Amino acid sequence: MAILDYSKDTSKSITIRFHSQEHGPEGQPLYYHTPEEPAVIRGYVEFTTIKETKASDITLTFEARAESKWSEEHGGSHISFHHITRLQEQTWDVKLNRTNKTITPGVTRYEFEVQLDPDLPPTIEGRRGWFHYRFKAHMQRDFPFRNMAVKQLVWVYSSSLRELEEHVPKVYKLVWNDILPVTCTLPSDVLYQGQVVPLTIRIDPFLENSIHKDQDLIITSAVVKLKEYTVLREPRMLDKKRGEKKVVFVLPVMEGWPVTSQGFERTVLAELPGARDLAASIETVPVTKAHLLKLIMMVRVGSMGEEARELRVEMGVRITSPRPEHIRGTVPEYPALPPPYQASSSDDDDTMPPEFSRSDTAQSQFQPDVKDAGSP
């Protein structure tokens, strides 16, 4: 998919093609970038002319670039900024068939390849902040308005997960209102787009020194939520920043909660969105994205007529790209009951969402992120 195409006139054209057989969420050629096997992007530039023409050779550039762009009206004034940071660059000179300064009719094809540097982020799309892998072919002609250029994006799944890596379970603990121990366990604090994540919830009995000891705990509603936090930055303007946040995933869990004074444990399966709907975690100068997975419950004590109160557990996670075997279904999923590891806790100002009648296993609502060459 060309994002800019001034590549053709009545007698000549420039195209960029890639040797990938798969396509990413937005239809671009797809490449996998892993710690063990860095992605190598291969393709070619093709220039075609049916008559003699005077022009420069073609300059082909590659950029892995983070970009932020913000514009707003504030207090009667307009505020905007636009910042780009390039994490990898490469340039090629594409020599054309010519006699002296005149390019002869015919087709010139130039093969290129670039190996991505380690630890580059995945492709990220967004309205105001993004990370792109971009190629541009540019030809200068006698008059600037007749210059020719074409730009093409490729989609890169850059995963921080290693092959056959043993994942360390991540445990988040708190004592709600100093009376009720709560533990949430994830298979890891690094999750990948499209993953089915088992979240194990354990609620122990009320503490011995609580007035609610030996009383039933009633959970009236619960929801699992994934929230994405974006910071856009322009360091040239006194490090001006703008923040955004959005909910990218909600799983209501309204049924199946036991009423007991003895405590219980339950595992909820949540299918995360793919890369089209869920950006990876990233930290660059122009754009930063971070994620919190949240369990929000409304609870009350069985012997009391008081209203239900909010119980919340926040779980800081990092989102990465899937590995090729995750996409192709050749790796086993995590076990349903990960063991405990360590603890953390935090607060937030979200309110409880409205109740829904849904099961505790998320059904796939998201479009596939990878298409093979034969897919429509």
TrEMBL record:
It comes from the Eukaryota. GO terms for biological process: ubiquitin-dependent endocytosis. Pfam families: Arrestin_N. One of its GO terms (cellular component) is plasma membrane. Residues 40-145 form the Arrestin-like N-terminal domain. Gene3D superfamilies: 2.60.40.640. InterPro entries: Arrestin-like_C (IPR014752), Arrestin-like_N (IPR011021), Arrestin_domain-protein (IPR050357), Ig_E-set (IPR014756). GO terms for molecular function: protein-macromolecule adaptor activity; ubiquitin protein ligase binding. Residues 323-376 are annotated as: Disordered. PANTHER family: ARRESTIN DOMAIN CONTAINING PROTEIN (PTHR11188), FI21816P1 (PTHR11188:SF17). This is Arrestin-like N-terminal domain-containing protein. It comes from Linnemannia hyalina.
